[in-house]
Each structure stands twice: as C-alpha cells, then as structure tokens.
Amino acid sequence: MLRDRAEKIGAIFCLVDMTVLVMSVVVSYQLRSALAADFPDFTDYVPMFGFLVSIWLVLLYHFGLYDQLRGGDALHEPLALFKVCATGFIAGGALIFGLKLHFVSRLLVGIFATTAFVLLSLERLALRSGMVHAAVGERSVLVLGRGKRLAEILGILEAQGAWGVRIVEPHQPLIHVDPGETALAISRTLTTTVVDEVIFAVTPTELAHIEPALLKCEQLGVQTHVSLEMENLNVARAISSELRGIPMLTFTTTPLEHGQLLLKRAIDVVGSIVLLVSMTPLMLLTAIAVKLTSSGPVFFRQTRSGANGRPFVMYKFRSMCENAETLQAQLVAANEVSGPVFKIRNDPRLTAIGGFLRRSSFDELPQLWNVLRGDMSLVGPRPPIPSEVMQYETWQRRRLSMKPGLTCLWQVSGRSEICDFETWMKLDLQYIDSWSLSLDLKILARTLPAVLTARGAA
Fold first, then answer.
1. In CATH, what number does 139-232 get?
2. Residue 55, exposed/middle/buried by CB under 10 A (0-12, 13-18, 19+)?
C-alpha cells in the first residue's frame, strides 16, 4: 500500500533530482567560467561532474530524501539537503586533494554545491505544492480500531497528506460489539463514501471478530490491511508472507533487507578472496613460524556454532600447545570473564609466538576461508563454542540469529577489556537490531586501527 506509493514518489523524486543536478552542472560551469576568460573547456570537467552527480544521488538516498514514509517537520528536508550538499562538497574536495587533481577548480565544486542546494530546495517546494499529487493521484484510506496502534497508523497517514493520502472520517461508529453489525456499518460506509483501502488495527483477541467485516470488504472489492498489535513483542517485526498462496504472518528479529543481505554476501566473497590472495605471503610466513616454534599441526580446527546454532569447523593458526583444550580444566579458577566464556591474559598454554599471533590477530586469518565458504561473514557476532551455547540464557541465544563474523562491535569496543559476558551479548544484539550495510562498513573501518594497536587483545 503506502510502501508501493512511496516507492513511486521516490522514483519521481530521483528522476527530477537527476535533471536538477544536471542543470546545476550547467549553471555552475557557466558561473565559474564567467569569472575567468581562460577557464578550461566543459569537456575537461565531465568526469568530475559525473562523480559529483553520482555522489549527490547517493547522499540524497542516504539522508532519507527518497523515503516519504518518514514524515518529519517542515525543516526536515531543507536541513537534509544542506547536509547532502555540505557532505558532497567535502567529498569533492577530498577527491581533488587525494588524487592531486590540481587542475580542478575548488571554487567550481563550491559553486556546484551551492547551486544544487538552491535548485533542489526549489524543486522540493514545487513537488510538495502538488506536482507529485497530480502524478500519483489521491488515495482515500479508512482506518478502524482502537488503542496505541491506531494512533500510530493515523499519525503516519497524516504525515502523508502532502502526497495525496486522505484519511476517511466515518459518518457513524463502525466498530460494534456484534461482528455482524460491524460488517453492516462498514458496508454502508463503503457504498456511500469513496474508500480505496481499509486498515484494521486490532489485537489478536479481536482478530476473529472482524472476519465478517473482512469478508464484506472482499465482496465490495476494497483492498484491506490488518495491523496486528502484539503488546508483548519488544524486538520482533511482523511481515506478511505466503507459502504457495497460503497467507502467513511472519515475526522476525533479524534483518529482512534481502537486497542488502545479498550485497553483504557479495562483499564477503569478494573481500575474502582479495584478502586471501593478498595475505598469502603473510600466511605462509605465519605457518612456517608456527611449525618451527612448537610441535603439532599448523592449523587449529574447532567446532563452532554458526547461524541458528548450525555447527561448522572454524580454522585458526595454532597459538597454543597441542593439549590446550585438555589443560583448560586446570585453569578454570583463573578465568577473567563472567559467564560461560573462558579467557585469561598471559595464558600459560600459549606457544612462543602464540601471544604475538593473538595480539596481532594473525591467528584468525584462516577464518577468511570460513567466510568464503559461507560459514561466517566479515562482520557479525563472534562464533561461540557449542558447549558455551548450552549455558546461554534464553535471551542470549538470539545472538545466533545472524551469521557469525570475523569482527563485530565487541571486537572494536575493546575485546578482552570487556570482561562482563552480559555486556558482550548486548553488544551483539545491538548489532543485530540495528544492522545495515553502513554499520558493517563502519565496523570494518574501525577494525584495522583496533588490530594495529592490539586494543583489548589478550
């Protein structure tokens, strides 16, 4: 319903934005060339303008200027457009400086940013004044129900008034104690008033009582939606789905942005291949060092719990003596982390170079193979040992709902400096609940400094 409408409006905005940005290119070039008679030809700046237009479109999307469901006050769009143009100007300046493009006029980039801000602001005013409304038409929505969910839905719809969404005010009470009376009341409204869609905001106990009303909407051919208010669900989101035509309501706590998840997997594959190839000399040297400094295999293999507890074999360069797992029972009293995890600083089981491998994270390089295989991701909660998982509290098991990773919020927040197991678990759940590709990229960007400084490594 509204999502489809918002996508159409977003597509219109994007097309118009591209046109406005091209106009900004022409205007900014004319203004800059007027200040210098010997200014370079326009063709010399085509690649630069191509970059600027592309980065502006990405920033417009990033700052939510294509998501009309967000609503916001009157200052939301101008402020977001200012952020877009300011960030774009900084990005353009960074490109010029980083690539040493001394022939490119910084003033030209500044004029483009200013021109784009002015023209995009005027464009948004024009579109809000009714041009988009004329393009996509009006949609009349009747909302029925009670409680907090009803208020939330009405608030969202009211924010869409500028885009042609009209809330139908019923002329008589439509919700009755008797389901049959409710169906008749709705039937009278739908046959006397223009209604494109009906939304029922109900609780699970009220669901059965609106069945006659749903059947009446079906008979009249009016599109109907049911918003089910589950008061005790704190994290899970409800989505509609189907199985071979059988409608289902799905509750999930994990990300459902399938396109972004597919891109996340693509980044994992490309990233692991690039790192495995580029790190081959370092991995060979590490393997030789492990073999020369202690007896036993080069690689340490251990069963870990992956997505939803799925077991897999994780690989590391061996940093401990051969019988390290057997000796752990003798060191339980020295454990420095609360909960089922076992970690101690200056572990006596470490080999001659084991401490260095741990601090530098070189021991984890073979896990790139796990990433390539699909057992792990570059970013995600660290994979636990099955025996540890058996000791989890119920709420802690949710950290298994996403594929484990090489690095995570815990990894870049101090690693072994965090000795409270519950804090570690909350960081993992925070990652899952707020996941996005941009969050993954931020964690990856913070991982390199954390590894180089060995912050929190034990």
1. 3.40.50.11900
2. middle
